[in-house]
């Protein structure tokens, strides 16, 4: 059996954890399986490197940022490989480029275009454990190193699993799997034993941080099943699979409650009634690579208004792009509100009961005295905006009222979920 194991930054924080990961890898290897390991950078290394870059330059070329950030994963993979040697195993660490991970040239958010894992296979053939630096690749046209976006080691693992036709892709993290809500916000959140890849896709897009959305997208497209587990325990984790039906509790058609704390709501007032104005508005955002959600259009005596959300980190750039556009589009006024958050209910049962779910959701939040902003519904998800300061309460109230609370409060093993 070929197993891909990916370890997140918090699982690699410090020598003890590195040794524990090496032991886990060898246990799998000695169980007779081929193992390919993908490690993220240790702990907060990537954030620290970004902080360091900020202290030396206000203008940080994306190429240089990628040169800098790719180093974090080389450090951790080499260290775990050494720890494996120390325990009597053989291992060989490889950068993303050496592992044959080819990407396009978009520094900071490159997409994998091909994987030629020749050296990974060579290492396996001589009985060694290959360690592949996560989150990175090389653009063959420019010869430059690239990164896949924050949290991108998940993508590396799933992409390798697809390319090498692995039997299992395990993502080791600091929580015991995928939960019905972020356990740091909802102490009674329950671990899901299994859920479908499409539900996970919705959960990740709606803010569940346990897996990077693009990794789930990749898994979905390439038919890779992903097993999310804790590197701190031997508990069973969550299987995210194509065949899985999910295990939403009886009496609830909701699989989980996800949230996005940092959302920017952009409003464009005074939009021309000419439909081409709306088209060009979204074209500008699409060219800027800005993901939008919760689109609303309204019309009043004052003219047309278009409102939508973007990740808070994209808020200023989206506003600038739209303001530049306004110079060519008459009387528009663009504003950016950073005081909202988004909460979403996700589940395959949503389609059928949408109206009653929205009604119940409104009742829950109204009883809690929480203002309800725009609501958007699809077959798998209902999202709404609420005041950022009331987000945690909203998540907890919905989790309870939709029957998701577990009997006891759980524990989160370590710090931030990466
Ligand atoms: N080290 C990178 C980050 O912090 C990639 C990863 O952790 O997957 O975003
Ligand atoms: Mg992660």
TrEMBL record:
InterPro entries: AceGlu_kinase-like_sf, ACT-like_dom_sf, ACT_Aspartokinase, AKii-LysC-BS, Asp/Glu/Uridylate_kinase, Asp_kin_monofn, Asp_kinase, Aspartate_kinase_CS. Its EC number is 2.7.2.4. This is Aspartokinase. Gene3D superfamilies: Acetylglutamate kinase-like, VC0802-like. It comes from the Bacteria. One of its GO terms (biological process) is threonine biosynthetic process. It comes from Streptomyces fulvorobeus. Pathway: Amino-acid biosynthesis; L-methionine biosynthesis via de novo pathway; L-homoserine from L-aspartate: step 1/3; Amino-acid biosynthesis; L-lysine biosynthesis via DAP pathway; (S)-tetrahydrodipicolinate from L-aspartate: step 1/4; Amino-acid biosynthesis; L-threonine biosynthesis; L-threonine from L-aspartate: step 1/5. It is an enzyme of class 2 (transferase).
